[in-house]
Amino acid sequence: MARTDDALYQPSDEEPFMNDKQRSYFRAKLIAWKADILREARETLEALQEENTNHADLADRASSETDRAIRQRKLISKIDAAMQRIEDGTYGFCEETGEPISLKRLDARPIATLSIEAQERHERREKVYRDE
Q1: Distance CA 101, CA 106 (A)
Q2: Is the Cα dihedral 105, 13, 97, 110 positive or negative?
Q3: What is the value of pTM for the model shown?
């Protein structure tokens, strides 16, 4: 079980980037997020199995739940990839520039692979391609 001081820990720019404490913090955050997704998927499946009275509505709901399940699988894949980056020491560094991704960004989106600046450049390029 985590000690009380670990439960209150927040990564800080005042400490070395991606030190052991920060890696442990983000690993725990990713594990908890994945567990929540899996629990939610299990609950949804159980609800669908119990709810078979109105077949038309059930078919519509099953279709939307399938779309949601696909998004959840993609998210789990991104979480697993982030966990792998923690293990291989590349977690927290921008895939494009190699620079550290801000701790605030990682805290808000622990699967981030790009710094905010690189993400904005990426989105601008995508918009240009969409507008053409």
Answers
A1: 7
A2: negative
A3: 0.80
Per-residue pLDDT of the chain (132 residues; tens, 9 = 90+): 344 456 789 999 999 999 999 999 999 999 999 999 999 888 877 776 666 555 556 667 667 777 888 999 999 999 999 999 999 999 999 999 999 999 999 999 999 999 999 999 999 988 887 776
Of 75, 79, 44, the residue nearest 62 (C-alpha):
44
Identify residue 97 by its one-letter amino acid code: T
